[in-house]
Amino acid sequence: MRWKKQGCIITLDDLKDVSWMHSHLQLPVPFKLDNGNYRIYFTTRFEGKSLPTFVELEKDTFNIVHKNYEPLLMLGKPGTFDDSGVMFSSIVNFAGKIYMYYIGWNQQVTVPYQNSIGLAVSEDGGISFRKYAEGPILGRSLHDPIFVASPYVVKREEDWILYYLSCTEWIEGESKREPIYDIRYAMSHDGIHWDVPDNNLCIDGKSEEAIAQPCVIMDGQGYRMWYSTRKTLDYRTNRMNSYRIGYAESLDGYTWIRKDDEAGIAVSENGWDSEMLAYANIIKEEGRYVMFYNGNGFGVSGIGYAVAENE
């Protein structure tokens, strides 16, 4: 699969009339509307906190035709798992409702932050959301002792499968501790209550690597996964160590074979995605795949897209 980049389509300049968007257009989550247009949910930052919103793109030109001017969810009460940030991550259209799985985070003392996974529900087609509960649907546990984040949920005929980031260690960096993580999975019969199996590792974040933000597409007889991979240290400003898009395949959705060389997309020579590629989220359409992703600065430079033909 080879991706053809189409350029950066959403920047902070496009949204300068939304006063509370201070920085970042992070973690694009696409949703195809009945009229063919794309609604792109993303997370922006306001006074150091993370809040979600969306824009709508015209199906042919990818121009912005609608903006949402208020945060879709607010921060949790002090002490709850999402009192410092709410970051949308994965969307499922189910039984007349929209399930939005999100990352909730709060600040810590011994390490910079802790993440958990929450659920928001929409009953008006994804225009507004309410939190399913004040607590997370998946947090740190016997299986995941440090934190979990970056959910991507696949609804199958007989069950649900949740792919997520599991932090395995905090290591000493140049100025602060940095997290290492890999990709694991959990199972559910309702999309709300999750069981975490033993030996649930999908993609191993090795000693000098961190794996984040999976996106999984069921394709024919198997599964395709795209994810973000970086070095554990000096990845924020060092172009050589920053995020790239990785790729893996599976026959059953549980056991994965890494094929990063077949990801089919790389940083550009210059411009908005010349230092970093991160947080890919893919829609499979008839005859093609459409990838929305972030470039430099973890979403500071904006959101772009690429297209691959369905071979």
Please describe the topology of this protein.
Layout: E1 4-10, E2 23-32, E3 38-46, E4 49-57, E5 64-67, E6 85-94, E7 97-107, E8 113-122, E9 130-131, E10 147-155, E11 160-172, E12 177-188, E13 201-203, E14 209-219, E15 222-231, E16 244-250, E17 256-258, E18 278-285, E19 288-294, E20 303-309
Antiparallel strand pairs: 1-20, 2-3, 3-4, 4-5, 6-7, 7-8, 8-9, 10-11, 11-12, 12-13, 14-15, 15-16, 16-17, 18-19, 19-20
Keyphrases for this structure?
52% strand, globular, mainly beta, Tachylectin-2, Chain A, four-stranded antiparallel β-sheet
Provide a descriptive summary of the structure in words:
0% of the residues lie in helices and 52% in strands. The N and C termini lie close together (7 Å). The radius of gyration is 18 Å and the shape is globular. A hairpin with a 7-residue loop joins strand 8 and strand 9 (130-131). It has 311 residues and is an all-beta fold. It has a 4-stranded antiparallel beta sheet with strand order 1-20-19-18, with no helix packed on it. The chain has one domain (4-309): Tachylectin-2, Chain A (5 Propeller). The protein contains no helices and 20 strands. The mean pLDDT is 95. The protein has strands at residues 4-10, 23-32, 38-46, 49-57, 64-67, 85-94, 97-107, 113-122, 130-131, 147-155, 160-172, 177-188, 201-203, 209-219, 222-231, 244-250, 256-258, 278-285, 288-294, 303-309.
